[in-house]
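One-letter codes give the sequence; the integers encode the fold. A sample entry reads:
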Amino acid sequence: MEKILKPIGCEVRGIDLKTENRPEIIKQIQKDVTEHRMLIFKDQGIISGDRHVEISRWFGELESTFYRHPKSPHPDVFRVSNDKNEGCTGVGRSGWHIDGTFQPAPFSYSLYHMVSVPKEGHTLFIPLTELVESLDKDTYDTWNKAWMVSDRRSSPIHPLIYRHPQTCKPVLCFHLGMTTGFIWNYELPSEATASHEEYEALLNSIENKINQDNGKYIYVHKWEPGDFIISDNLAVGHFAHSSTQAPRSEVGLRVLHRTTVKGTHPPKK
């Protein structure tokens, strides 16, 4: 049973990810992730780290670039929390983003499983195609000529707007908290680095557009026990709500497991 969410994603019930291995079901899940961009599997209980990794491999090779917390259930599972003794803290709070913008090809999929659900601690998601298509011409032209420079050393420079490698729809390669600058028209001889004022204006423009009309494109996921999310990382931006770092003594323990699947298509104009 499925429930289509607005403006993005689909709830899925009746599939047990702990045991599901039928090729035809896996193929359908792969297809549905591309179509809906985010599948939220309900009532999954606790999925082990090993199984989380097995499910992730339905979509490709894993790529794990994070700090491995001692309590992580698997070397390829990123464990985050609101308690530093239980997982890495402060994760996802630096700004709206997709995962892996510092890689030659950003991660293609991100898979999330909340193994300990607090009273607060939402994750916010936004469909990137709708965001780009909502831009007026002048804003689109400004974004379209911009290339992001990551704060990681030796990171590649990526176009801010490009075409999704599977759907060919416009999406963003962006990280509002890990971008040190923008370059205009990077592939052209007339390339120039954006001034500090232009850099700040572009970051603010992206933030403002995401929050336009009271955030009409934003989906706020309020985690429930047993939730497991498979997300098309290239099509969906996300951001951790401030309540994800609320003290354990106030909201309870938050533990989220995440895996990332290696990207295969560097963003190109």
Notes: The longest strand covers residues 109-116. The chain has a mean pLDDT of 94. The chain has seven helices and 16 strands.
